[in-house]
Amino acid sequence: MDVKREQWSSKLGFILSSAGAAIGLGAIWKFPYVAGMNGGAAFFIIFIMFTVLIGLPMLISEFIIGRGAKREAVSAYKWLAPDSNWGKLGILGVIGCFLLLTFYCVVGGWVLIYSLLSIIGNVIHAEANYGQLFSQITSSPTITLLGLAVYLIINVIVLTFGIKNGIEKASTYLMPLLFIFFIVLVIRSLTLEGSMEGVKFFLKPDFSSITGDAVLYALGQSFFALAVGFSCMVTYSSYLDKTVSIRSSATSVVVMNIFVSLLAGLAIFPAVFALGLEPTEGPGLLFVVLPTVFSQIPFGELFLSLFLLLFLFATLTSSFSLLEIIVSAFTDGKKRSRKKVSWLAGIAIFIAGIPAGLSMGPLKNVLIFEKNIFDATDFLVSNILLPLGNLFIAIFIVYKMNQKIVENQFFMASSQSALMFNTWKLLMKWVVPIVIIIVYLHSLGII
């Protein structure tokens, strides 16, 4: 007997919340610096190709699994494939989300600290060295761990309100504002002298600069940016009403994600080249470029504060989805307090996130495969576990899940289109697993 569950109040609320889950650090923070370190325009094209041909089918798949089971991730796989080991795929998602949050929330803490500093007028000033400011913040144990703690507290408080009154309400009001401020930033960036070199870097591809590692990063980024692979969207879509089209919702999320990645590139790279910075700056790229750009416009501190607050919100909407899969796994259909589980999860993530938080300060010399703890965790999650999770989900939905449920969910609230279904099925059966396996083998130096 199904347990009565909370639902999204509208299709728009679901799309904006799903887009919020996807459009966060992946599109705004991570995409510019990963693209900058891996060829710019050529990387962007490969990223779009992976997002459309692999990310979109995977997003549709997670939506189908979630609404088809009407359960959070761990229970969904167990219900759809009883008496099998497929329930462990949901457990992989919970573990993956936990690991992702240990470094994601560190960056969220940086954004929070920058937001507060900007509000009190301590970011933009005449003698500012923004690269040095970023180093000071990220290397300080006190500042970093305080930011991590406060950021997690905000997440926990919102999660305790649930889906409709917490996540959906926040996403519906503030996501559109992020787009507006991004467009303002792009316009200013493009009007800087020398900005066209940055536009060329981002939009004029040179595939000779692409390496096997860059392709692996592009695949990982397409998964990271859409929040697929760890079954976050399985949990989100489990709250979805049957009157909503999965296909159109997934397409909307993908289009919005690519658009924000485009805006991020057009906001960052023209400014990088105009201001004589290096596109290979790394994780600090956004935190150095944004203040530099806003410092050159009237009321720059005010606009920077507003943008950082919206960026903070976009970051939060993504971490909401990651924390939700953990919380729902322990509360959905169980007699456990959502509030208590949310706080316990937040405390556990804070403790586990301390090493990543200190990896640019006291633990900067602790290296794992020549990467600091922060970068090593990021690589493990984005380039190992996420593709692995997507591979298993592709196998599950094609070979293990009841195909009548798959078809019903695919066509529900949509016009009948056998061609679209067959194309999606073909991609999930052959293209998605083969591409993931090839990229994996190449990254291991086998091919």
Q: What would you say this structure looks like, in words?
A:
By secondary structure, the chain is mainly α. It has a single domain, classed as Hydantoin permease (Orthogonal Bundle), CATH 1.10.4160. Helix content is 75%, strand content 1%. The chain has helices spanning 11-22, 25-37, 41-69, 73-80, 87-119, 130-139, 141-160, 163-190, 196-203, 212-226, 232-237, 246-274, 285-294, 300-331, 338-357, 373-400, 403-411, 418-443; strands at residues 367-368, 371-372. Strand 1 and strand 2 (371-372) form a beta hairpin. The radius of gyration is 21 Å and the shape is globular. 55% of the residues are buried. Its main location: membrane. Keywords: Membrane, Symport, Transmembrane, Transmembrane helix, Transport.
- Largest sheet composition: 2 strands, antiparallel
Mean pLDDT: 86
CATH superfamily: Hydantoin permease
Strand-pairing-aware structural class: mainly alpha
Structural shape: globular
Secondary-structure blueprint:
Layout lengths: L10 H12 L2 H13 L3 H29 L3 H8 L6 H33 L10 H10 L1 H20 L2 H28 L5 H8 L8 H15 L5 H6 L8 H29 L10 H10 L5 H32 L6 H20 L9 E2 L2 E2 H28 L2 H9 L6 H26 L4
Subcellular location: Membrane
Main location: membrane
Protein name: Transporter
Task: Jot down its keywords.
447 residues, mainly alpha, Hydantoin permease, two-stranded antiparallel sheet, 2 strands, globular
Could you give a short description of this structure?
With 447 residues, the chain is mainly α.
